[in-house]
Hints:
By secondary structure, this protein is mostly helical. The protein contains 14 helices and no strands. The protein is elongated and about 70 Å long. The mean pLDDT is 89.
Amino acid sequence: RLAGLYLPDSKFVQAIDLLEKLLVEVKKLDDKLLLVEIHMLECRTHYAVKNIPKSKAALTASKTNANAIHCPPLMQAEIDLWSGVISAREKDYRTSFSYFYEAFEAFNAAENMKAKTAMKYMLLSKIMQNRPQETSSIINSKSGLKYASTEIEAMAAIAKALEDRALKSFEAVRAQYCMQIDEDPIIAFHLDDLNETLLEQNILRILEPFSRVEIAHVAELIELPL
């Protein structure tokens, strides 16, 4: 519990030190369920400090222990959620969507509000797969409508800007919904990546018809400063 409290307070070093000591003791007890919880917390903590290999290793350890017991549905949903997060970080958005979908179904069935988080990440996966047109069916589904909120509106607006290939609209949406987007570092990371891709695509689209261009003219066309 203390390690869990360290995480939202950004006390990552203290959390990791405590978790390492806990793991030694709990492995002696061979308490598989507790090991699943500790490894999941370890996964989240390493992800927060951008140590993706260790985050993935902790997730794998959590899955191994979960497979050895009857894992409670909500704990399994948490494992699926973070499996999706790691897959997305590795740019395997098709796999990440499948994991997020499984997590969403479990959280939604339990009427747990983490379903909204899983739904946001499902939308993110579709956006990052460059399939923004498929987000509306998720948002407007019977289960999706239960989680209508500004966070979901933000993801819908991002999808629309991507569908329109409008860099300026994309940046305007990010500014409008900065609180909803930037408060989630997972979404913010991937949208930063998408912003770079959109900028590159816009520049290439503008340059394509010309044999020679002036940088100032390109900047004017994409409505960005030099």
